[in-house]
Design goal:
mainly alpha; Endonuclease III, domain 1; disordered C terminus
Length: 248
C-alpha cells in the first residue's frame, strides 16, 4: 500500500459530503437482500430489479417458496438478471442451506459469529467472497466490508492498492483502517458504487469527479504523498487514462 491510510477516511468524508446517504441495500426483507446478492452477480442492478419484481408478482419471494419452487420455474422468473439457469441453481442451493442451518429464520443467523458464518456461506454453491460479504453486511448487519470491481478500480487509480491483490487482502486493508461499524461499511461501499458508476468509469470522468483533488494529490510528487519511485505527474496521468481502457 503506497498511500497514507488516513486518506481513506478523507475519501469517505468527501464522498458522503458530495453524494449524501445512499440508503443501500434496497430490499424490503433480509431474504430479498440475500436473493439480490446472488442475482447481482455479473449484471447491472436494473436487471436485478426486474427479476425481483417478477418474483414478487409470482408471490415467490420467500424462503419457503424458494425451497419448494422447481428450478426451471425459478430460472424463468429471474431471466432478466442474466445467467438465469446458473443463478437459479445457486439460489436453490442457498435456500436449502438456509433451511438446514436456521430453519428458515434468518434472525437465527445473528447468533453465529461473523467469521464462522462467512466460512459457512463460502461453502455454499455459487457463493463467493463478494456475495458472502454482501449477505453478511446488508442482510444480517454483520461488520464485513464488501469489495467489488469498483473498489479495485478506484483505489488502484488513487494509489492505495495495485489492484491485483487478493479479495481478502483488500478487505483486510479497509477493515483495519475504518471504524468497526456496519453503518460505515454499508455507507462507504454504497458511495464507492455510486462513484464507480457515475464518475470513475472504465473511461473516467476525472475532471468533474468529487475525488479530483485527491487524485491530483497522489499524482503530484511535491505534495509528499506519492510513493518513492513513482513516475512523473504527466506520466501518471497518461497511465491512469490508458489503464482505464486496458485493465478496468
Amino acid at each position: 500500500m503506497i498511500r497514507d491510510h488516513r486518506d481513506v477516511i478523507n475519501i469517505y468524508q468527501t464522498l458522503y459530503k458530495s453524494f449524501g446517504p445512499q440508503h443501500w441495500w434496497p430490499g424490503e426483507t433480509p431474504f430479498e437482500v440475500v436473493v439480490g446478492a446472488v442475482l447481482t452477480q455479473n449484471t447491472a442492478w436494473r436487471n436485478v430489479e426486474k427479476a425481483i419484481e417478477n418474483l414478487k408478482k409470482a408471490g415467490s419471494l420467500s424462503l419457503d417458496k424458494f425451497y419448494k419452487i422447481p428450478v426451471k420455474k425459478l430460472a424463468k422468473l429471474i431471466r432478466p438478471a442474466g445467467y438465469f439457469n446458473v443463478k437459479a441453481s445457486r439460489l436453490k442451493a442457498l435456500a436449502s442451506w438456509l433451511k438446514s442451518i436456521c430453519g428458515g429464520r434468518l434472525t437465527h443467523l445473528e447468533k453465529i459469529k461473523k467469521d464462522k458464518l462467512r466460512s459457512l456461506l463460502l461453502d455454499v454453491y455459487g457463493v463467493g467472497p463478494e456475495t458472502a460479504d454482501s449477505i453478511l453486511l446488508y442482510a444480517l448487519n454483520k461488520k464485513s466490508f464488501v469489495i467489488d470491481a469498483y473498489t479495485r478500480r478506484i483505489f488502484s487509480r488513487h494509489g492505495f492498492i495495485s489492484g491485483s491483490e487478493s479479495y481478502d487482502t483488500i478487505k483486510k486493508f479497509f477493515e483495519q483502517i475504518l471504524p468497526k461499524s456496519e453503518k460505515i461499511y454499508n455507507e462507504f461501499h454504497a458511495l464507492i458504487v455510486k462513484l464507480g458508476k457515475d464518475y470513475c468509469r472504465k473511461k473516467p470522468l476525472c475532471s468533474i469527479c468529487p475525488l479530483q483533488e485527491d487524485l491530483m494529490k497522489f499524482m503530484n510528487p511535491s505534495s509528499g504523498t506519492g510513493a518513492p519511485g513513482q513516475v512523473k505527474k504527466e506520466n501518471r496521468w497518461k497511465a491512469i487514462q490508458g489503464a482505464s481502457v486496458r485493465n478496468f
